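During the reporting period the student researcher (J.K.) took over the structure-prediction task from the postdoctoral fellow and processed the backlog of single-chain submissions. One of the processed entries is reproduced below for the supervisory committee.
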Amino acid sequence: MFKGDCASKSACMKNLLKVLILIIICSCSRQQKTNSDNYLILFKDRFPIFDGNNWEVLVELQDSKETTIFATRHFADTILSVRVHRHILPSDSIVYEFRGAGREFNFENDLVDYQELDENLNIIYWYKYTRGDERQKFFVLGKYYYQYMEGMLNENQQEYFLKNKDSLERIGGDSIPNLPDSF
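J.K. obtained the following structure tokens:
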């Protein structure tokens, strides 16, 4: 296990990603604003989740062949964050891949709702956490899916999840049994 504030590898990675995003945001240039506007125009044509206005591209992480774009939209008590990946193929054609979206809301008290969404705004998993302590999650939907995506299942449990995904991914609640280690 990890010591300190990071209770899991995934929590450490999320904290590291947040710090990295803040560093890159602070170093944004005027040219990135032009790129940001171009990305938003392109994304609105390709991904239904980019409907409406007030989108802001927060950061671009890139190397010579790949770019990851993070965009957010604030409305009322909701923050919608989207991740899109841009690949430049050997043929020099460009492919955009939707990598996920998250919606946080219910900021009136210390309990925050987080939903991971697909590109059509369907909920993949949904949990609540106390502001300032995302390590303790209370699932409303998709706990098995979350465990699978975060690498929290052993090899047999992953195989079981994949074989029974259609029924397992829609199970609600937080107090659910562990997936079997063998089947």
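The committee noted the following: The chain has two domains: 1-101, 106-175.
J.K. will present the remaining backlog at the next meeting.
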